[in-house]
Design a protein that fits this description.
Helix content is 61%, strand content 0%. It is mainly α and 571 residues long. The longest helix has 36 residues. The radius of gyration is 53 Å and the shape is elongated. 20% of the residues are buried.
Length: 571
């Protein structure tokens, strides 16, 4: 590379005609290659010649070529004697880029490592205190040129997805260095103003407000961040949480930067995807939440709260310990259900009996004789108090069944006798409701405590319950049969001769109009219920309300017209 560049650089320095004939493309090649020369690099005269050619060839060139020239000049490390020419070339490139109305990508791919290291080196060289210093106007033109290139990167961000240059992560580092530079110059301004006054004390504080051009650059970064897509299937393209933390700290320290609400919504989504991916450090996450919560509106605070609760629920996974395993020297509990380990249910295991463990090893005393009733209770507890568990232990419980047999038989006979002597229901509705209640009580009756229940007792109780159910069913059938007979008797056709006979034997004219009270009163409540529920007989109603009967009733009720009703005439 030096063998190729050295003749061209020599001609450019010594021959003015070569400076006039050089093209923009040749100039871009020279500056780009000179940035990769080993130390000591370009001499002061060579760098000044390249700077003069750059300033003269920027006019009329495209945005892409001007951007390539500026990035190449930014990568150059100038000789201290040519530092002023280096700053002039950078300012000229930045001012030329700001004149374009539309931004594009540079003519050469951006550096893969990003531009933040270049800006850090540019600011670090100021520690050498070589003249001229890097003043805020020079930094302003450089930053504005980078912002113009950044707009083009945003428009073609998918074409340059592999480069870190001018990404949100790269911009966060650039803005951190830039804000430090602005704060240091603000402190120097305060010191110079204080030294010219008559004050005895000097208080230096960082500026709460950034300069206008730095404020615009920070707002550009925040706007680009909220436009950044968060692809869940591409974690390598996500913005790092450390970069988000840097931006949030800059927003908090400088009050004149007001991000859009979309930026905070984007921040919450970014935290959410990183939290779901599980690549978040505890300290970084705590600092991020501490900076983000005071800046969030109420709606975004609720979303961040859900993210925090989801993180806490995923981290807090309680360990479920059911019973001691075989590795502890204890026999595992018996499996009562097939494939119970695969089912997603909660299994409660009873304390298992370990006959192989010595009493001395566990620190227990000699066991005492066990009562047969307690043995049955322990067996029922091991089986979980289930009916199928009791049936499985029927062979072991047969010996203890004789003691409770007489008591269970007496109780069953007493319950059966009380059910038989019970008074029959007075109506069909009452009988059906009582049958349902008795069935429910019979279903609840067999729930005997496990300590005294045996297989024979349960079978005997079930048999007595079946007998009571059969008795109730037979009674219900008899009542339905009697009700049907009463209904058929009430629906028989009405006999007119019988009605006439009843009228002839009446005691007066009032009995011909109204039915006797004794005929309206039913002998029992059951008959009254059947009378109210009997079907309507139209033929019977027609005969009872015929025109002939109506005329007779009217003849009896209404006296003749010639007979005065009031006043009563005296004889």
């Amino acid at each position: 590379m030096p063998a190729v560049l050295q003749p061209l650089l020599t001609d450019l320095v010594e021959n003015p005609q070569v400076r006039e004939d050089i093209t923009v493309d040749t100039l871009r090649f020279l500056v780009h290659a000179a940035a990769r020369l080993p130390s000591p690099g370009l001499t002061g005269k060579e760098l000044e010649a390249l700077a003069d050619c750059t300033i003269s060839r920027l006019r009329g060139s495209s945005f892409s070529k001007q951007a390539h020239l500026m990035l190449s000049w930014l990568r150059l490390v100038p000789d201290p004697s040519a530092k002023e020419a280096h700053f002039k070339a950078l300012r000229a490139c930045g001012q030329a880029l700001m004149k374009h109305q539309k931004s594009h990508m540079p003519a050469h791919p951006l550096p893969h490592e990003g531009l933040a290291p270049l800006m850090a080196d540019l600011l670090a060289r100021e520690a050498e205190q070589n003249a001229p210093p890097l003043t805020p106007p020079v930094m302003q033109d450089i930053v504005k040129g980078l912002v113009a290139i950044s707009w083009g990167v945003q428009r073609h961000q998918f074409a340059q997805s592999r480069s870190r240059s001018l990404s949100i992560d790269d911009w966060s580092e650039i803005m951190a260095e830039l804000v430090k530079y602005c704060e240091s110059h603000s402190i120097i301004g305060q010191a110079s103003a204080s030294s010219s006054s008559n004050r005895n004390t000097l208080t230096l504080t960082p500026a709460a407000l950034l300069p206008g051009w730095a404020n615009q650059a920070l707002f550009h970064v925040l706007f680009r961040a909220q436009q950044q897509p968060i692809l869940r299937n591409s974690p390598e393209r996500w913005v790092q949480l450390s970069s988000l933390l840097t931006l949030l700290r800059l927003v908090r320290r400088h009050r004149n930067v007001q991000p859009d609400p979309e930026f905070f919504a984007w921040s919450v989504r970014l935290v959410d995807v990183h939290q779901r991916a599980g690549n978040v450090e505890e300290s970084l996450f705590a600092d991020l939440v501490n900076e983000l919560v005071p800046l969030l509106p109420e709606k975004e605070r609720a979303k961040l709260t859900r993210v925090l609760m989801a993180r806490r629920s995923t981290e807090a996974e309680p360990e479920k310990v059911l019973a001691p395993g075989p590795e502890q020297g204890l026999a595992p509990a018996p499996r009562l259900l097939q494939r119970s380990e695969e089912a997603s249910v909660q299994v409660v295991l009873a304390p298992a009996v370990h006959p192989h463990v010595e009493a001395g090893a566990l620190g227990l005393t000699e066991p005492e004789p066990v009562n047969p009733v307690n043995v049955s209770a322990n067996i029922g507890a091991m089986a979980g108090g289930r009916l199928w568990g009791l049936l499985a232990k029927a062979a072991k419980q047969a010996e203890q069944a004789e003691q409770a047999e007489s008591t269970a038989a007496t109780a069953a006979s007493t319950m059966l006798h009380s059910a038989e002597v019970e008074e029959a229901p007075s109506s069909l509705g009452l009988a059906s409701s009582q049958a349902q209640e008795s069935q429910q009580s019979d279903v609840r009756t067999p729930q005997v405590p496990t300590a005294t229940a045996t297989v024979e007792d349960l079978q005997r109780m079930l048999q007595s319950a079946l007998l009571r159910v059969e008795a109730l069913e037979s009674r219900l059938a008899d009542q339905e049969r009697d009700a049907a007979k009463a209904k058929d008797a009430s629906e028989e056709p009405f006999d007119d001769s019988t009605h006439r006979c009843g009228q002839s034997h009446g005691d007066g004219w009032l009995t011909q109009i109204l039915e006797p009270v004794a005929e309206q009163i039913q002998p029992s409540s059951a008959a009254a219920t059947l009378h109210l529920r009997r079907a309507f007989n139209f033929e019977q109603f027609r005969r009872a309300h015929s025109a002939r009967l109506d005329t007779e009733r009217m003849r009896v009720i209404v006296p003749p017209d010639h007979f005065p009703l009031w006043p009563i005439m005296k004889k």
